């Protein structure tokens, strides 16, 4: 079951929709490991990637996912284009809409911008990250990675560590993991905790060792230096000392705890380089792999709903 | 010509009463009761002093495409407002006697309500040099305010306040700690975090107010806080009043009738300054109006065109139009049991008139015949496309409202009639 028209965030998703999406992602993960990596689920459809904010990894992942499913994929470097000429987001959306895309993948530096755009176009919109609001495919790929490593996605203790306040990845993850009935801990200095965090049904720690005690999953976040107004932490080295993940701090978690990071990593700032490369603990490379699979599944499911709604509206597809 | 309203419920905020009776007017003023040339049967509806709104932004000079004096005047009378006191946060700011005279002349020529003007406190509202407070006062400026541009330099503010004190001028400030509120578009808390929007702590208002009140104590100026919107700021306000400082406070109709959750899915028509607050704050502020701790309700009418609002939330302009919806929105406070009509009118009409030295807000003999006849219970669904303002950015679009202005009179002349 998956009834969404868009994938704008984790918040609107029902747990069974999450499970449906992850089940399909598993199948696409297998496809990706095969010799022939191609399917025609999106054949004939047009996918446009609009990134108003720099991205290499997410954009490449969406592009590969679309191409593997047979869509015509176009990348638009929005930073260099019309917004520099003063065009508003809505006008950009209407212009693109006139090209009849079927799937629109959008990243934007402002929270809610993707929701706004989705109201103005008649195709499926996928949020590839909006401001500090949500990054749903990242949370889904993290969930898939956890489910494959742990064999389940419920009743796990998961510590999300670092710059929670500026992180859309943290938002989407804590919503998703909460929906799937896990115990979520947020670990970081109080200056990097968002307001009202105690009302989210999570446990908040400012001591890393206490926060990691008994955890099944340790999810590190990038210290988003480019988002900082300045002055959230005294220095990188103090941050690494108190919140950087190293073997000693990780030893407080369960022996089989896995280490995750959405990338790109700042080695030596939030995570010890050796630990990040430890294939027994780190699933960071697997996360990248699952990213493609999850995005294939998400676009496939949205395209099915799109075809259905167009068919019921009598539009030829 | 004389006119007698009969069979009307008279709301007298001065006496705090609501009585069935009659009111006679002649030559633009209220007179002792007696026979008149013409009689209006109010059918048991309510007659009150016209609303005196001291927070109105008109787009003149500079942004006439958003609101002109003509459209603002039409919106005002439809909302039961008979006096608008205009903000100086125009482009350019009203900071010289010349721009003030221009604005007053435009208002007099184009609007069918009483138009008064406030002036900026510092040149260009930049917080560096004080304006010609004396000349501006002579030219008719009722108060001095940089609106939402907080004067951060305390020395500049203290000198402007000291100078204003010497002239008996009223200084209006926007209590907010600008360092904390910089870059924010909503109030911090769970909702802000869920939506990923940068939030400001509600305490930023208290910090701003405490600073201002200390400066009032230092300088002895007459001071008004434009909008108190959080419960945390109330004790400081009450302390200052108890200490005998010449301090009053206002709040906006939006903060009295909406809360932070109304922003919902990034609805930019709910983006205002300061941002909407938690429901507990809304209730505390409504109670403070009822008790008199907060003196004045204003519309903080801020027209914004579609282009300024059809943007991602953080980029969208702040403000909402509110003149025409002021009376029906304020009725929510009565219908919800926060206060009676006489108490409401004290905040809408009597107190702002008193604070600004205007004659309105009363039903006493000799007071101007600025009146509103209304039905507090008439239900309707708000349709923003029918607003008289040039800009349609009301947060109440689609809301069910109760309370309708039937007719509005300025100096005894009917300037609005619902049936017309």
From TrEMBL, chain A:
Keywords from UniProt, A to Z, are: Pyrimidine biosynthesis, Transferase
Q: What is one term from the GO cellular component aspect held by the record?
A: cytosol
- Annotated Aspartate/ornithine carbamoyltransferase carbamoyl-P binding domain residues: 5-147
* A GO molecular-function annotation: aspartate carbamoyltransferase activity
This chain belongs to the protein called Aspartate carbamoyltransferase
The task this protein performs is described as: Catalyzes the condensation of carbamoyl phosphate and aspartate to form carbamoyl aspartate and inorganic phosphate, the committed step in the de novo pyrimidine nucleotide biosynthesis pathway.
User: In its keyword annotation, does this UniProt entry include Nucleotide-binding?
Assistant: no
Q: Which reactions appear under catalytic activity for this entry? A: carbamoyl phosphate + L-aspartate = N-carbamoyl-L-aspartate + phosphate + H(+)
- Entry keyword annotation includes Nucleotidyltransferase: no
Q: How does it assemble?
A: Heterododecamer (2C3:3R2) of six catalytic PyrB chains organized as two trimers (C3), and six regulatory PyrI chains organized as three dimers (R2).
Family affiliation: Belongs to the aspartate/ornithine carbamoyltransferase superfamily. ATCase family.
Q: Which residues form the Aspartate/ornithine carbamoyltransferase Asp/Orn-binding domain?
A: 156-301
**Pathway, per record:** Pyrimidine metabolism; UMP biosynthesis via de novo pathway; (S)-dihydroorotate from bicarbonate: step 2/3
Q: Which GO terms describe its biological process?
A: 'de novo' pyrimidine nucleobase biosynthetic process; 'de novo' UMP biosynthetic process; amino acid metabolic process
Which Pfam families has this protein been placed in?
OTCace (PF00185), OTCace_N (PF02729)
Enzyme Commission number: 2.1.3.2
Residues reported in the UniProt entry to bind carbamoyl phosphate: 57-58, 107, 135, 138, 263-264
UniProtKB/TrEMBL annotation, chain B:
Question: Residue limits of the Amidohydrolase domain?
Answer: 339-416
Q: What class of enzyme is it?
A: hydrolase
Dihydroorotase catalytic domain location = 44-230
Query: Source gene?
Result: pyrC_2
Q: Which InterPro entries match?
A: Amidohydro_3 (IPR013108), DHOase (IPR004722), DHOase/Allantoinase_Hydrolase (IPR050138), DHOase_cat (IPR024403), Metal-dep_hydrolase_composite (IPR011059), Metal_Hydrolase (IPR032466)
Q: Which GO terms describe its molecular function?
A: allantoinase activity; dihydroorotase activity; metal ion binding
Q: What is its EC number?
A: 3.5.2.3
SUPFAM superfamilies from the UniProt entry:
Composite domain of metallo-dependent hydrolases, Metallo-dependent hydrolases
A Gene Ontology annotation in the biological process aspect, one of them, is:
pyrimidine nucleotide biosynthetic process
Q: What is this protein called?
A: Dihydroorotase
List cellular component terms (GO): cytoplasm
Which CDD domains does the annotation name?
Answer: DHOase_IIa
- What is the species listed in this Swiss-Prot or TrEMBL entry? Thalassobacter stenotrophicus
Q: What's one Pfam family here?
A: DHOase
- Please tell me whether the keyword Transcription regulation is annotated for this protein: no
Q: Coiled-coil ranges per the record?
A: none
Sorted alphabetically, the keyword list is: Hydrolase, Pyrimidine biosynthesis, Zinc
């Amino acid at each position: 079951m998956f009834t969404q028209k868009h994938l704008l965030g984790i918040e609107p998703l029902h747990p069974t929709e999450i499970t449906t999406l992850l089940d399909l992602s598993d199948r696409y993960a297998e496809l990706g490991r095969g010799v022939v990596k191609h399917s025609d689920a999106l054949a004939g459809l047009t996918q446009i990637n609009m990134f108003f904010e720099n991205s290499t990894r997410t954009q490449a992942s969406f592009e590969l996912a679309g191409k593997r499913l047979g869509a015509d994929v176009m990348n638009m470097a929005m930073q260099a284009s019309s917004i520099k000429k003063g065009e508003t987001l809505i006008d950009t959306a209407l212009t693109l809409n006139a090209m009849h895309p079927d799937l629109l993948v959008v990243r934007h530096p402002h929270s809610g911008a993707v929701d706004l755009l989705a109201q103005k176009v008649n195709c499926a919109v996928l949020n590839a990250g909006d401001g500090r609001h949500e990054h749903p495919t990242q949370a889904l790929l993290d969930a898939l990675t956890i489910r494959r490593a742990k064999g389940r996605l419920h009743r796990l203790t998961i510590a999300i560590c670092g710059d929670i306040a500026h992180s859309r990845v943290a938002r989407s993850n804590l919503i998703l993991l909460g929906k799937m009935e896990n115990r979520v801990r947020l670990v970081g200095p109080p200056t990097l905790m968002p307001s009202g965090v105690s009302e989210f049904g999570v446990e908040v720690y400012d001591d890393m060792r206490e926060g990691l005690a008994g955890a099944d999953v340790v999810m590190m976040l990038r210290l988003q230096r480019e988002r900082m107004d300045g002055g959230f932490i005294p220095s990188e080295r103090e941050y690494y000392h108190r919140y950087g993940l190293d073997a000693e701090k990780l030893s407080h978690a369960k022996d089989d705890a896995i280490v995750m990071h959405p990338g790109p990593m700042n080695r030596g700032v939030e995570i010890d380089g050796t630990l990040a490369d430890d294939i027994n603990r780190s699933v960071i490379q697997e996360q990248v792999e699952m990213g493609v699979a999850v995005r294939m599944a998400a676009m496939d499911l949205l395209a099915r709903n799109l075809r259905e709604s167009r068919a019921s509206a009598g539009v030829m597809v | 010509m004389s006119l007698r309203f009969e069979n009307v419920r008279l709301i007298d905020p001065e006496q705090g009463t609501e009585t069935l009776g009659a009111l006679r007017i002649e030559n633009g003023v209220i007179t002792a009761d007696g026979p008149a040339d013409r009689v209006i049967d109010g059918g048991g509806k309510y007659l009150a002093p016209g609303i005196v709104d001291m927070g109105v932004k008109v787009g003149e000079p500079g942004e006439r495409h958003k609101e002109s004096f003509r459209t603002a005047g039409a919106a005002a009378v439809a909302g039961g407002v008979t006096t608008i006191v205009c903000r100086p946060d125009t482009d350019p700011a009203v900071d010289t006697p010349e721009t003030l005279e221009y604005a007053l002349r435009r208002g007099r020529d184009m609007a069918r309500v009483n138009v008064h003007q406030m002036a900026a406190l510092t040149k260009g509202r930049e917080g560096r040099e004080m304006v010609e407070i004396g000349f501006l006062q002579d030219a008719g400026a009722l108060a001095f305010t940089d609106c939402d541009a907080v004067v951060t330099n305390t020395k500049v503010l203290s000198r402007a306040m000291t100078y204003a004190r010497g002239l008996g001028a009223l200084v209006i400030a926007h209590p907010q700690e600008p360092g904390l509120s910089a870059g924010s578009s909503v109030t911090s808390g769970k909702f802000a975090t869920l939506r990923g929007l940068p939030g400001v702590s509600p305490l930023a208002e208290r910090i701003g107010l405490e600073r201002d009140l200390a400066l009032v104590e230092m300088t002895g100026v007459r001071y008004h806080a434009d909008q108190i919107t959080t419960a945390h700021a109330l004790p400081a306000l009450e302390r200052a009043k108890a200490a005998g400082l010449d301090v009053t406070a206002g709040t906006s109709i939006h903060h009295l009738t909406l809360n932070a959750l109304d922003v919902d899915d990034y609805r930019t028509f709910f983006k205002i300054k300061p941002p909407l607050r938690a429901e507990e704050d809304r209730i505390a502020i409504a109670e403070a109006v009822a008790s008199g701790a907060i003196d004045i309700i204003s519309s903080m009418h801020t027209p914004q065109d579609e282009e300024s609002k059809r943007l991602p939330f953080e980029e969208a302009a702040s403000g909402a139009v509110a003149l025409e919806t002021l009376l029906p929105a304020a009725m929510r406070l009565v219908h919800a049991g926060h206060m009676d009509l006489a108490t409401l009118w004290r905040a809408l009409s009597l107190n702002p008139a008193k604070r600004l030295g205007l004659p309105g807000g009363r039903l006493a003999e000799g007071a101007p015949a600025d009146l509103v006849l209304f039905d507090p219970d008439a239900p309707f669904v708000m349709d923003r496309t029918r607003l008289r303002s040039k800009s349609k950015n009301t947060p109440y679009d689609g809301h069910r409202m109760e309370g309708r202005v039937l007719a509005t009179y300025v100096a005894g002349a009917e300037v609005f009639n619902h049936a017309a």
